[in-house]
Design a protein that fits this description.
The complex is a heterodimer. By secondary structure, chain A is mainly alpha-helical. Chain A has three helices and one strand; from the N terminus they run ααβα. The model of chain A has no long low-confidence stretch (mean pLDDT about 95). The chains are: A mainly alpha, B alpha+beta.
Chain lengths: ~70, ~160
């Protein structure tokens, strides 16, 4: 989780702005296993509401997909 | 599976362009293209929802190495609101009706081009995250809003 200090955020934004796109993307994407979410190769939902409901009913709460 | 990288970003951009797909990067991956420093797992693509665009999108995904069955391809072509793909070289979420954005054309009219990558405006990215009301977004939105303020100030100076 990023620091919650807006002054630190600004420093991070400025540092990112100095990096070229290729470097920014190199550090932007990570791959860690998400239980349930990563266990199917394909999922589709007729509506976003269906998807949100599925997330709430099936994913561990700590993944953060539940609605508040 | 490896995480998405710059070479793959170029490949997806080129494939979608070759096939004439109408799309925008959205979500955190879109914000990162605009300069937001953070991390994410999946590429999120907001595609215009019509069958012709869906067919073009399927053709591009097959070319990129996504293993779609004919049934899965048909679901993308029909434009289901949300499709999650973990059957290719990287994870992609296809969103045809993101929360908080009425029409693709509206988002397109406000979009930003980042070195050839068409990206939703930060206002739209934030609007869709606000409308989703998820715990993970509630945690990340303050920093994303702060980045929008910074980004708009930088834009005014250019």
């Amino acid at each position: 989780m990023a620091d919650s200090n807006p002054k630190v955020w600004l420093e991070e934004f400025e540092a990112a702005a100095r990096r070229p796109l290729e470097v920014r993307l190199r550090y932007a994407f990570i791959k860690t296993y998400k239980p349930v979410m990563d266990d199917a190769r394909f999922r589709s939902f007729d509506s976003m509401a269906d998807y949100r409901r599925w997330c709430e009913e099936n994913l561990p709460r700590w993944l953060g997909y539940a609605r508040v | 599976m490896r995480a998405f990288d710059y070479r793959q970003a170029e490949e997806i951009k080129d494939a979608l362009k070759r096939h004439g797909v109408r799309y925008l990067f959205i979500g955190k991956s879109g914000a990162m293209l605009l300069g937001f420093p953070d991390t994410t797992q999946a590429v999120e693509i907001f595609a215009d929802c019509d069958e012709e665009n869906g067919r073009a999108l399927v053709a591009a995904l097959l070319e990129l190495g996504f293993g779609l069955t004919s049934e899965e391809a048909a679901e993308i072509e029909r434009g289901k609101d949300f499709v999650q793909l973990k059957n290719g070289p990287f994870d992609v979420d296809l969103v045809f009706a993101p929360d908080g954005i009425e029409r693709f054309a509206d988002a397109w009219s406000r979009h930003i081009d980042v070195e050839g990558f068409p990206v939703c405006h930060l206002d739209d990215i934030i609007a869709s995250k606000e409308a989703a009301h998820r715990e993970k977004d509630r945690e990340s939105l303050p920093r994303l809003r702060a980045f929008r303020d910074y980004w708009k100030k930088q834009d005014q100076r250019r």
